[in-house]
Write a structure and sequence with these properties.
The protein is α/β, with parallel strands linked by helices. The chain is built from 16 helices and 24 strands. It has two domains: 277 residues, Aldehyde Dehydrogenase, Chain A, domain 1 (3-Layer(aba) Sandwich); 189 residues, Aldehyde Dehydrogenase, Chain A, domain 2 (3-Layer(aba) Sandwich). α3 packs antiparallel against α6. Bound molecules: NADP nicotinamide-adenine-dinucleotide phosphate. NADP nicotinamide-adenine-dinucleotide phosphate binds next to α8 and α9.
Length: 503
């Protein structure tokens, strides 16, 4: 096995000078009614770089009172925004798309600094996240209804679509730009106003993006942003207020369940993008080169911290050793280090707790009989680093096979028959995404029908696309983001009956 690559120099786009200039541009207040302001309590909290543990900036820490001020602003802005011509809403989103891409260096660097992903991946997220702005600018002008005659011929049925009202959007830390644009863009396209609560670990990208929305002319109060360390009380204040009409949440399944329960008294529309436990199936007729490449992308993108990350690898017994040897050889070459350095594949995990949890999952699997093929350890020193890891022969009862890993650990087990593979893949309460590698067309078609997931990669390792409906089955969520479906989450239907005009 070759020696691991070492991280290279600091990327020329991420020098201390670039970082200081960038951080000087990030708004650090709460965005309420078109202006940045301190928290009503005067409180702030620190945001730090997971690669160094060093502080980056302090931002205002919203209280429940601030939350209600944000919701009031969204409520006041709603009638005018809902009445704004769809073409005008579309042009603002399109302008935001252009501006995010124009400022791609700033957004990419900021995501690497506050979240840790390697800089090239952060550039990839700018493209992906920006695409939701372009896609929903195009969808804003295609909100349609229908007109028909009742079967009896005695009336006319009109069906129209209307924005649901002020929305509360909660985002996670793992894709700081894309998770924000994937909610804000369809909401604004539909004519809704929003209050956004970013993850407390990564609020900076959302604030910079909100400033872009103000810069291109999105009116005051349409987008309000509330960084906070009091996500529970802030959310309660909003969810208990009758002015909010919808909650869209991306995050873990336990928090999603709790928020669903808290949305019940107000009978809110809800969209839930929750956790995953994706199976990755390699059949004996797979193109092994493609399967290895897809496996590495599906597992190690975002340092394994994606809801769509392949969590459980089921490889046909006939290929298992070769597949394992090839992914192990590739992973042994991955450089681990700060995402601003060149050549890095594995940046830091989001926080020290995540490093500890990843180590425990690997130790549990090994104690139950799994074989550690490469990696398996946290790195000493500053920053939350865990090596890229491959574990083989993982028994079904290992926690690695049941829990969402959210770290750079590729866990392999084997199967003999298609029925067994399907049974193992579906043996989870999650149902977000599955990956299948096979060259047998009929098998691929059977698996589309047999795997209980909202999305499937058939001979591909990454499925996300702004034009496609992203979302899960079972306890991975409710509703869809992106695609034709995404804007419908922010629209409500009205049916109007009129008499037969000829009667
Ligand atoms: P998380 O702990 O559930 O947090 C997600 C968001 O919810 C954060 O903004 C968090 O704020 C907030 N939150 C936490 N507790 C809350 C409460 N009691 N009331 C209201 N808000 C609360 O999840 P995470 O660790 O950030 O993200 C990882 C999870 O997200 C994984 O399970 C992953 O699979 C899932 N995810 C799903 C998708 C998808 O599309 N299906 C996409 C990305 C991630 P604080 O930061 O202040 O705690």
């Amino acid at each position: 096995m070759s020696e691991p690559e070492t991280a290279g120099d600091v990327d020329p786009r991420a020098t201390p000078g670039h970082i200081a200039e960038l951080l000087g541009q990030v708004p650090t207040g709460l965005l309420i009614d078109g202006g940045w302001r301190p928290a009503e309590t005067g409180q702030t909290f620190g945001v730090s770089d997971p690669a160094t543990g060093q502080p980056l900036l302090r931002v205002a820490d919203a209280s429940p009172a601030d939350a209600l001020a944000g919701l009031a602003a969204a409520d006041r802005a709603f009638p005018a925004w809902a009445a704004t011509a769809p073409r005008d809403r579309a042009e603002l989103l399109r302008a935001a798309f252009e501006e995010v891409l124009r400022r791609r260096d700033e957004f990419a660097l900021l995501m690497t600094l506050e979240m840790g992903k390697p800089l090239p991946e952060a550039y990839g997220e700018v493209t992906y996240g920006g695409e939701f702005l372009r896609w929903f600018s195009e969808e804003a002008v295609r909100i349609q209804g229908r007109y028909g005659t009742t079967p009896e011929g005695n009336g006319r049925v009109l069906v129209s679509q209307h924005p649901v009202g002020p929305c509360y959007l909660i985002t996670p830390w793992n894709f700081p730009l894309a998770m924000a644009t994937r909610k804000i863009a369809p909401a604004l396209a539909a004519g809704c106003t929003v209050v956004v609560k970013p993850a407390s670990l990564t609020p900076l990208t959302t604030s910079l993006f909100a400033q872009v929305l103000l810069d291109v002319g999105v009116p005051a109060g349409v987008v309000n942003v509330l960084p906070t360390t009091a996500s529970g009380p802030v959310s309660t204040a909003i969810l208990e207020d009758p002015r909010v009409r919808k909650l869209s949440f991306t995050g873990s399944t336990p928090v999603g369940r709790d928020l669903l329960a808290r949305s019940a008294p107000g009978v809110l529309r809800t969209s839930m993008e929750l956790g995953g436990n994706a199976p990755f199936l390699v059949f004996p007729d797979a193109d092994l080169d493609a399967a290895v490449e897809g496996a590495l992308r599906a597992k190690f993108r975002n340092i394994g911290q994606a809801c769509t990350a392949a969590n459980r690898f089921f490889v046909h017994r006939s290929l298992a050793e070769e597949f394992t040897a090839r992914v192990t050889a590739a992973v042994a070459n991955y450089a681990t280090g700060p995402g601003i350095r060149t050549g890095v594949t594995i940046g830091p995990l989001i926080e020290p707790r995540a490093v500890a949890k990843t180590g425990e999952l690997v130790a549990d699997a090994v104690a139950r009989g799994a074989t550690l093929r490469v990696g398996g350890h946290a790195l000493e020193g500053a920053g939350s680093f865990f090596e890229a890891t491959v574990v083989a022969d993982v028994p079904a009862e290992a926690a690695l096979m049941r829990e969402e890993i959210f770290g750079p650990v590729l866990a392999i087990t084997t199967f003999e028959t298609e029925d067994e593979a399907v049974r193992l893949a579906n043996a989870t309460e999650y149902g977000l995404v599955s990956y299948v590698y096979t060259r047998d067309l009929a098998r691929g078609q059977r698996l589309i029908e047999r795997l209980a997931t909202g999305m499937m990669g058939l001979n591909v390792g990454v499925v996300s696309n702004a034009a496609a409906p992203f979302g899960g089955w079972k306890q991975s969520g409710l509703g869809r983001e992106g695609g034709l479906e995404g804007i419908r989450e922010y629209l409500q239907t009205k049916y109007t009956l009129t008499p037969d005009p000829f009667a």
